[in-house]
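New here. Invent one.

***
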Amino acid sequence: MTSDTLSRIRGVMMGGAGALCLLYAVLALSTGRPDPLPIWITGAGGVLAAGVIWISVMRAGNATAAQSFDEGFHAEILRAQRNGFWVAIWLYPVFGLLLWQNWVSWPVAFATMGCLTAASYLLSVLWYDWQGRG
């Protein structure tokens, strides 16, 4: 396995987990229910992604893993963390307004905000990985 393959696996798995979080948030907001899917789905998606990444790293070996998790990866992760932070910060006034207008309920707001925060980080990792390849 090459470092490029390992990087692609990592990006796709994190992007998949992020897409699952985004789907959950969109469904919660559109249905008005805090549990539009079984509650364990997003957690299972994250554990699956982590497991696949971990197994891929073990199969790749130390040298390949070190090449895949280089300074470029760390720079991308830091950018994705900043995105996740700012999305989380801006979700508070947005959902404060939605709650104030009684457009969403508290349980739906919390479920949506939590999933959108995770999705913004995970999908940012995938986005920056794609930008680095382009």
Summary: The chain has a mean pLDDT of 93.
